[in-house]
Amino acid sequence: MIRFLLFSITLFSTSLLFAGDNPPLGARTQGLAGCGVALSGDLWGVQNNPASLGFIQKFQAGAFYESRFLVPGLGQSAVAAALPVKAGVFGLNMSSLSLQNLYMANKVGLGFAKTFGPKISAAVQLNWVYTRFGNNYGAASSAVADVGFISEPVKNLTFGIHIFNITRSKLGGDSDENIPTVMRVGGAYKFSEKLLVTLEAEKDIDFKPVIRGGIEYRPADVLYLRAGVASNPGLSAFGFGLMLQKMRLDVATTFHPQLGFSPSVGLQYML
In the predicted model, is pLDDT for residue 174 greater than 70? Predict the structure, then answer.
């Protein structure tokens, strides 16, 4: 019975909080209640909007872990890397959401972003997704493509758009279920070197729109403070980041009124 309840919580929480199969990643993004589609030059753009990688000028790598609602064994982990080359920037992302041996959803993505002048970046990414339900419920996998775009139409104002599963891929295997196509659109305005505000919307054809908003404040060169809120369902978030020479430590948590806290931590290396 306990295993069944945990399995049910996993399925319920995944669909409830993320309205699709491509949840926002990164402790910085989590501290902003999932806002990430318009963050320029952010490593976790490999998940949130690969066009963001086009503005990365040096190699970066990072790791992320989230404990979902503090349920033992229920967590999401990910690693990411961005490698600038002469033609653009390659991005690699590997993530896994699992609950012991009851449920597992893995994703591996390889993307390429290219800038067109100093204020525009576009990207394409190919992903392999794999889902397994317990030991006796089978597994399925599929290739999924997504595209992203970021621009700065006005000084300090960044606009981003990301479409996941533009290919309308299905799970495959024994399942004929469509993988959701999810579109995210948003903007971020940098009032100063110390203050950034971001707002975005997400739409999956099977769910109501999700609206997110976040604020990032930098009171000192080494410290970032973050907070955010999101709708459908309503949740709040807060977190902080610490710059440690070439490393950045990000810590955050989201809070759902019924399911509780989901703390996360990320460590990022910047060359």
Answer: no
| 3-state DSSP of the chain | CHHHHHHHHHHHHHHHHHCCCCCCCCHHHHHCCCCCCCCCCCCCHHHHCHHHHHHCCCCEEEEEEEEHHHCCCEEEEEEEEEEECCCCEEEEEEEEEEECCCEEEEEEEEEEEEECCCCEEEEEEEEEEEEEECCCCCEEEEEEEEEEEEEEEECCEEEEEEEECCCCCEEECCEEEECCCEEEEEEEEECCCCEEEEEEEEEECCCCCEEEEEEEEEEECCEEEEEEEECCCCEEEEEEEEEECCEEEEEEEEEECCCEEEEEEEEEEEC
Q: What is the pLDDT of residue 2?
A: 42
Tell me the C-alpha to C-alpha distance, in Å, between residue 192 and each of 24, 30, 72, 91, 212.
Answer: 25, 22, 41, 28, 21
* pLDDT for the residue numbered 208: 87
Q: Which domains does the chain have, with CATH numbers?
A: 2-270 (2.40.160.60)
Q: What does the alpha-carbon distance between residue 7 and residue 101 come to, in Å, rounded to a whole number?
A: 10
pLDDT above 70 covers what percent of the chain? 89
Residue 18 has pLDDT above 50, yes or no: no
* pTM of this prediction exceeds 0.85: yes
